[in-house]
Write a structure and sequence with these properties.
The chain is an alpha/beta fold. The protein has two domains: 2-170, Rossmann fold; 181-394, CoaB-like (Rossmann fold), CATH 3.40.50.10300. The protein has 14 helices and 19 strands. Strands 12-11-8-13-16-17-18-19 form an eight-stranded mixed sheet, sandwiched between helices. The radius of gyration is 24 Å and the shape is globular. The two termini are 38 Å apart. The structure holds cytidine-5'-triphosphate.
């Protein structure tokens, strides 16, 4: 089912429809009345090869307001306008598309498009959070040129991106983490020097978020202890933290009842001895004394529950003492975890590791095995990490 709401980006949904039908999917298009102001029913009907489902009063004997949602394998709405998000979040059923959203029990994917002000408005953000909390997949709008001369966040994601997300939502995931509770940490901690400045690192949090999203997709109850500020993945409980000490407290509190803990966060090794309450004034030279932070993964290993799987990450560059994997092996033994995901990092622009969406890694296991994962998406690497974790989980 392709829902189309009333926004100028409706014309781009035509390309999405082509991609969906050309790859063999049967698509019924449900445009709202406003969407038909932008692209007419004839276009949707010709390209889908089916009648367009327009309103609840058409073919009433077939009860379309119930049947369409019930029979869909996936509902995609592109563009999802601010109005459509609001109606979906509040469970309104004032047209055929919102009726479909209420009766669908399949994955629902919404691709928002609107002006930046509308997207950033607290009402829209609350509606998006509500929808994500219910497991609806809400894509982030793209940044770029909007309808008028202005540009900013709010563009419909490219049809290729929506298509990829739709295919992903349609592919069945093994529910091998159902009934399991997992904790994932993500992002780089910030160690404050004063109210304005901090010591930090380049971790974006994307790999940790991909791990949390993947675990939720495989049925786990997921707690994401996050030092990053990315949109919360669907169905994941996020515990926001800033410093290594806050992260430690949150992870240890959640780990007590967890079946697996994945430490993808880049935890600062040191914090300033002193955190000033007011902004530090400039001096000719500045010496900051640092003290070591506790090793959270090490503490987790000491307190490990029977059957609990611990996964660490190691971003290494290799040096005169050994290459990336030699450092990884030593770290795995020192940390006492079951799996260590070792990746080589480099300067900004290096294809793997920090800010980007791609990663490559070697996963080292405590039993001596190692698994090379060539350059791929952070989502795919996340699935590999869960495959290996599931193999090592204790009996329930
Ligand atoms: N880690 C942690 N607590 C810390 C530092 C790191 O739990 N204080 C975790 C990270 O989340 C990661 C793993 O330990 O999963 C390895 O992090 P890394 O910084 O590579 O480890 P270090 O022990 O700090 O090793 P190095 O001496 O190479 O910095």
């Amino acid at each position: 089912m392709l829902g189309v709401a009333g926004g100028i980006a409706a014309y781009k949904a035509v390309e999405l429809l082509r991609r969906l039908t050309e790859s063999g999917h049967d698509v019924t298009v449900v445009p709202t009345a406003s969407a038909l102001q932008f692209v007419g029913a004839a276009t949707w009907s010709a390209l889908s090869g089916r009648p367009v489902a327009q309103d609840v009063w058409q073919d009433v004997h077939e009860v379309p307001h119930v049947r369409l949602g019930q029979s869909a394998d996936l509902v995609v709405v592109a563009p999802a306008t601010a109005d459509l998000l609001a109606r979906a979040a509040h469970g309104l059923a004032d047209d055929l598309l919102t009726n479909v959203l209420l009766t669908a029990r399949c994955p629902v994917l919404l691709a928002p498009a609107m002006h930046t002000e509308m997207w950033e408005h607290a009402a829209t953000q609350a509606n998006v959070a509500t929808l994500r909390g219910r497991g609806v997949l809400v894509l982030e709008p793209a940044v770029g040129r909007l309808t008028g001369k202005d540009s900013g966040k709010g563009r419909l994601p490219e049809p290729d991106e929506i298509f990829a997300a739709a295919v992903d939502a349609l592919s069945p995931r093994p529910q091998d983490l159902a009934g399991r509770r997992v904790v994932v940490s993500a992002g780089g901690t910030r160690e404050h020097l004063d109210p304005v400045r901090f010591l930090g690192n380049r971790s974006s949090g994307k790999q940790g978020y991909a791990l949390a999203r993947a675990a939720a997709g495989r049925g786990a109850e997921v707690v994401l202890v996050s030092a990053a500020s990315l949109p919360a993945p669907a169905g994941v409980r996020v515990v926001p933290v800033t410093s290594a000490l806050e992260l430690r407290e949150a992870v240890l509190a959640e780990a007590g009842t967890a079946d697996a803990v994945v430490m993808a966060a880049a935890v600062a090794d040191y914090r300033p001895v002193e955190r000033l309450a007011t902004k530090r004034k400039k001096t000719d030279t500045l010496t900051v004394e640092l003290v070591q932070n506790p090793d959270v993964l090490g503490e987790l290993a000491e307190r490990r529950r029977p059957g609990q799987v611990l996964v660490g990450f190691a971003a290494e560059t290799g040096d005169a003492d050994g290459d990336v994997l030699a450092h990884g092996r030593a770290k795995l033994a020192r940390k006492g975890c079951d799996l260590l995901v070792v990746n080589e990092v480099g300067e900004p622009g290096h294809p793997t590791g920090f800010e980007g969406d791609a990663n490559a890694a070697t996963v080292l296991a405590a039993d001596g095995a190692s698994y090379a994962v060539p350059l791929t998406s952070k989502d795919t690497l996340a699935q590999v990490v869960w495959d290996l974790t599931v193999d090592r989980l204790g009996a329930r």
